[in-house]
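User: Could you check the structure of this?
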Amino acid sequence: MYKKIFTLALLAIISVANAQVIIGDATGTAAVKTSVLLEFAAGQNKGIIVPYVRALPVGAAVVGGSIILDATVATTARMKYYNGTSWFDLSGQDANLTTALANQPTVLQAPELSTSKAIIGNTTSSADGVLVLESTTKAMVLPIVADVQNIPSPSPGMMVYINKAGAKRLAVFNGSKWSFWKP
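Assistant: Sure, the predicted structure tokens are below.
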């Protein structure tokens, strides 16, 4: 019993000290792991899906770098990024999420506590969010795909990084169309 407790405690300490998560395999996509907080397996043709929100967050609860699928009006949903002062539209076009939202519980059906969140990179965070990446020296590596056409059924709110010669860019799916951003 003592060995099991010791092993669990040691694993907990190592995971906090390392504070890196790879989803999908044990390798990930980053060659050098020292500045990676969260990454995804290569060659999966999958993305990360940001939260749908039915009420746009405002005030002190919003942290710069937040990315959401704004579904305050289901027929005009758009991917948005908070730049520290205002919400910036990443989609450039509307999507109708009426059908998708019919399958999602409302706040009354599934109330959320403001303290409910998963934090990677630290044990606490003042940021309000579903998944909080808390680090001043590490970043998330988005799921990497060769082409969005290789994703069989993209979900509204999906984000990927396209790693194709001459077309390296961020791609976001608002539920209707892909939008692309390049540096």
